[in-house]
Amino acid sequence: MSNEHEATGAGAVTGSGPVAPRDAGNWAPKVERLSVTDDVAAHGYNVAGRRVTGPQQGFGRLWQRDYWADLGSAVTPRDLVAEWRAHFGDFWPRGARFHGALTGIEPGAVAPLELGPGHGLSLATGVMVLYADEESFTFMKPEGHMFAGLITFSGEEADDGGTQARIRILLRTNDPLYELGWPVMKKAEDVFWAGTLRNLAAAHGVPEVEVGEASECLDRRRIWKNWRNVRHNAGIRSAWHTLTSPFRASGPVTG
User: pLDDT by residue (tens digit) across 226-239?
Assistant: First the structure.
């Protein structure tokens, strides 16, 4: 190991004190609770004030899920990631809306999102950008989201020298109700992320792309101490928000 690497690695110490890792600017700062910017606040009622959740804060079995598509020489990995970050929600299939902040896909940015047909029937949740650089970016989910875990989007060099777009997810369902719905949600996730990769490929001139998928259960145990996560369930809270919206819209009655 070189002296340069030792001097600049995470936790390295020199005569002037600790040295920040080279990629420190690519990581989100530590936050206790999430906040949303004013421009997307109307969509962030299930995000503001929530904590982010990793796999150990979830409830269900632990899964690793991968989706990938080979784009050939249509775009370089770095250009692909730059375009993906700049127009992330544009590549989603219909029925999902990504309300990215004006800062875009940057470390620490928080974006509300809606999943479903709309017209008051959508599930409102969000993501926080945990990490972002020229080759990949990673989201974490807030309390109440369907899944607790990490999702990473990357552009990689394929075996044939072309570019591969990849989505890798490490997740547990967030509460017992979501775990019951996992068989249905799993199929919906397959359709959604395969559709995203096809839209991404088509935008780069590859209209007929084959999407690969792989899924592995890494831990079949459920974390029963986290069953209380159901109190944050975004599906329940979204339905309640819709039911009570006429009363919020009318406001207080004055004489």
Answer: 999 999 999 999 88
